[in-house]
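hey can u run this one w/ N-hydroxy-L-asparagine bound, need the structure tokens asap thx
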Amino acid sequence: MSNRRRFLRQAVFGSLALSNPAFLAGKTPPGKTPKGALPVVIATWDNRKATAAAWEILKNGGRALDAVEAGARVPEADPNDTSVGYGGFPDRDGFVTLDACIMDELGRAGSVSCLQHIMHPISVARKVMEQTPHVMLVGEGALQFALNQGFKKENLLTDNAREAWEKWKITSKYKPVINWERHDTIGIVAIDKANNVSGACSTSGMAFKMHGRVGDSPIIGAGMFADNDAGVAACTGLGEMVLRTMTSYLAVEELRRGAHPQKAAERAIMRIIEKMPEMAKENQIGIVVLDKRGRHGAYSVQPGFAYALYQNDENKAFEAKSYYTK
Ligand code: SD4
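ok here u go:
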């Protein structure tokens, strides 16, 4: 492009930006919210029990933040869910270590990582957000904080999880298996009747991970991100790939630039495939995205990623479109 043309282009683009307050504020351009679109809640995997718990709050005009917390607490308390909270598979040394984060419509965030002995890390993350000047607490410090806040110390390692760990120790092979966590690790995003978004994410992380390993789920912008000007997104799958590309943040930024949530989901996943093509061939990442108009999108690297959607009094599970097909 000639210097003159470039100059003209910049001048036109610059003046457009200056004359458009929505552009300056980085806000999603205003559009029509379809009738009955709000409220809505979406969770990664077929976590319909979680979306149902969230709906109880949303349908009565409750706050999205309360809804996503209530939703995440469902798999956290379920001993049969082997990648969240109680019943989660331990790390290779036998410790159940939990990661969680939460974000509200005010852009406040709270997070815990490597937290042991507390069944509801999502509620501890919320306390970090609301009761401390910090965003993230880890390990022993997070546990001490939780106990000070009145959370109960519990044994989270179930017999089933211990047996799986004993079995794993025979080969000690560490290779994440695509979709094996389905129905599990929860990312949950919601928009309430007041048009406010919030998101939450909770997991015991990859089974038999190294002790001290932190995944994407407690990292604001990686496992989950909410921006009340644009929308909210949450991820599941191999956290290392999400951490390298800040997948949830990327999707929400796409919303800010005016993308439909489905496009935003696809672009965020495409970034992973472009940057880590070899890893993407063998691993799964799934994302759910919700915008301010109650529209949603979902996409994954591999087939088999399901999500639960509660909207218009209907709680349904769907399989997301994926980059690779069967
Ligand atoms: C992690 N992203 O710790 C989590 C695991 C997960 O479905 O999402 N499993 O990497």
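Confidence is low (pLDDT under 50) at residues 1-26. anyway lmk if its weird
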